[in-house]
Amino acid sequence: MSTQGAPASTVLPERLTAFVRALRGHGIRVGPAETVDAAAVLEVLGLADRERIREGLAAALLRADRQRAVFDATFDLYFPLGMGELAATRAAPAADVTELRDRLAEALAANDATALTQLAGEAVDMLGAYGSAGSGTGGWSAHQTLDRLRPQTLLARILAAGRGGGTGGGGGAGPGDFTERLEADEIRRRIEDYRGRVGGEARRRVAERRGTDEIARRAIAPSADQIDFLVANREQLAELRRTLQPLARKLATRLAARRRRAARGQIDIRRTLRRSLSTGGVPLRPAYRRHRPARPEIVLLCDVSGSVAGFANFTMLLVQAMRDQFSRVRVYAFVNRVDEVTHLITTGAADPAALGQRIATEAAVSGWHGSSDYGSALGEFAECHLDAVGPRTSVLVLGDARTNGFDPNVPALRRIAARARRVHWLNPEGPAYWSTGDSAAHDYAEVVDMHACRNARRLGELVTRLLPV
Amino acid sequence: MAEQGDRPRGDATGFFSSVDDVLERLAEAGYLASTAVATTVFLADRLGKPLLVEGPAGVGKTELAKAVARVGGARLVRLQCYEGIDESRALYEWNHAKQLLRITAGRDETWDETRTDIFSDEFLLTRPLLTAIRGDEPTVLLIDETDKADVEVEGLLLEVLSDFQVTVPELGTITATQRPFTVLTSNATRELSEALRRRCLFLHLDFPDAELEQRIVRLKVPGLDAVLADSLVRVIGALRAMDLRKAPSVAETIDWARTLLALGADTLDESVVRTSLGVVLKHQDDIAKAAQGLTLV
């Protein structure tokens, strides 16, 4: 904590409030009461141990585990390990890339956390600088560093060294060949971790030059449930997928709780009056109406064309994971033709990407061309599959309502809506984009309820609120 | 204990004097804590705030509260939450049967005498929350599986946890003389309300890192060979990275270690893993997936 010099009493509260502001900017709700708690934490813990301060502040400021990644990245910016180049513990820093790679391989094999942090600093220092240091345009790039260092190529070398040398360091002294199989994965995880360290280090260095607040706002990735479905890249989708099971469980519990609440409370007048006869007409023991345990049926109608496939696949798997909450789930996919894909979705293989592939190859979702056509798809559904929809069915339509200039065929949607209990349309685009370009969102919104659903958190809210109990 | 440390605050429970003290003494009581756990426990102790522990099943949430009670020489008061728990189970209840007996016993008394008498301490059945607040000795209050309780109970907890006082209309407000060290646990099946979270320090208890887990295994299963413990923990680590329906937690690791000890296995090879995988994984498709991932034939 070299940042706190003599005037700590004035610097620290400022730093803390700036830190809290940055957290708020990332959607973590931190009130003044929490900030006061955090200050009390700093007072009690002192400033001697950075990791303890990190944990202490997390305890005071965070309210859920999903906020932790954002918190850690922000913490590294506001309470950095040091300023400028970190004081080297080794006598001499590496002379060139080859030596750096050698030492990195060593540290990865031994899983030495301090050395890895140190090497991340050196790597950014040596390989990451771009622009001229004097002008305002220069900085450090994690991407450039990793591109030149290529830590992923060290894997084979580390494995070979571990086998050749017998006892490597990380516990290679082996009970046969069984644990060796795990080695590759372990090293891969360590390399991934190292990439994170390099990213954090580059952010820290840039923040020193450009101002912490700006970097905190722009350079920290949002937490998984706030990633926009439409712009998510592959890693983010993978991250999102990991949140699927817990989310499904949470939503199922909420639905079950709503169902329980709905089940009590309705008084059966006839039975209450009859009971009251035995107490002289005074209704001492009210009788409640019994519920038939009828669970709703769900029909999903999903646009699986390229632009919104990530959103559709995630939602399909989510609903499928919650299927014990419904008496029946049927899933239809379309691009410009409709086909039932219920049998293709199994919870065992919860991988949206593979699911998209299977749907594309095993179901007839497109006809002559590959672009989505809501009009003909809705028309075909209303024509051929309408018997899947009954008075107990809730229909969820998933898609961006971009018709590629074809006829939106609103009457077909109206026919579906007339037959179903409720129809909801979940649109991954924000309302600002509705009916811009080829979007027919407002035409459809006149017939059914349309909800903007841009990230997993919003999807969770909508699923619990919209589905009937 | 309260006199130790640099600045004991008014509402501190005062079990510990520093973070290192927490680490050391919890370890003596058989609970190996990570930095996060030790720091947060120390803060909860020093700031006198309740501690909300969330995390997957079997990582030692309840065990933490028990360990703190053991270390602090405190009595442990436990409130197990379940669906439909209410005020009369959590806070207090009047002993109606005894009150009726009292009324019938004193036939010739005036009503005023009877009334003041039947609403006295003798007829009060204290439930965990009130018990924890009323005692004079140091207390650890464990509110287990808070997420299982209904939302209404959370409202009840708010008064208790923010001021550590309970109002009984007939007796007045009872305030804690000795603030209990409070631990709430939750499996996060339901989001707890923001108001309740705000009154607590938050600790997410996750799977421990490899080094700590190894120490835990060695502590809990002393007979196990060091090399075997090492490879055991590595296999568990690989299983956790595998995206299963139910990742194995610390409890399962210990179970597995005990199983291996009982089987007399001295190395972890394919056949041993294949036969005993059911101890660690509880779903058939998880077992199939793990067997594939570990390339067991």
From TrEMBL, chain A:
It holds the Pfam family VWA_CoxE. This is VWA domain-containing protein. It comes from Streptomyces spongiae.
UniProtKB/TrEMBL annotation, chain B:
It comes from the Bacteria. One of its GO terms (molecular function) is ATP hydrolysis activity. Residues 47-211 form the AAA+ ATPase domain. It holds the Pfam family AAA_5. PANTHER family: MAGNESIUM-CHELATASE SUBUNIT CHLD, MOXR FAMILY PROTEIN. This is MoxR family ATPase.
